[in-house]
Amino acid sequence: MRPFEQIVTEYGPTVLRVCRAVLGGVDAEDAWSDTFLAALTAYPALPGDANVEAWLVTIAHRKAIDIHRSRARRPIAVERLPEPTATTGRPEEWDGDLWRALTALPHKQRFAVAYHYIAGLPYKDVAAITGGSTDAARRAAADGIRTLRAAYAEASATPSPADQRGQS
Hints:
71% helix; globular
């Protein structure tokens, strides 16, 4: 077996991207840490022929579900927080319309898009992580991408206030 440090170095960025896409910025780092802490204890029992990346994304998926559940129990202090402005590459700093469209997707579609298009996992692994069939994972990802394209195209077609001033 490879040293666990190599596993973290090799797959850590992918797991973090998935966590950020599924959870957003703040909770993603907690999920990433929880994922690798859980993986550290289970790693010695992992079969040698296991797909380590899919195994880690499965753990991250379960940690994300735990965080989603804890969010539901947490009181909301304010109605809406302003979007932060920074350049760390976190999803909430992506194009605002695209990020809003991604967060508006149903959980199954959001997970399928994140695991297939961001992590690059095949639909078979996405289905194993999210539960259900390969066809259902493919359908959820396709529906999610279609919704994102439609929402993003609609937002891009709306002229910005600067464009409207230039037309007057």
